[in-house]
Amino acid sequence: MFPYNSRSVGTAFRRACRTLRIDDLYFHELRYEGTSRLFEAGFSIEQVALVTGHRDWRMLRRYTHLRPEGLHAIARKAA
Description:
- The chain is an all-alpha fold and 79 residues long.
- It has a domain at 26-78.
- The protein has five helices and no strands.
- The mean pLDDT is 81.
């Protein structure tokens, strides 16, 4: 979706974590967070899979960690 060099993104992320003295955050964890927030924003499985590049729901589900308050917000929007 975004043109980038994965090595330069990873290097910039590690440098930022060092600068901010964040010892326990890994770049891959952002994928979990982003996937969950897309679902909470109301995107469908197919739409999220397009963004994340997952081809099957079982793998996509591993990256999904929804917060209850996010689900309540979706329910309020639908009502």
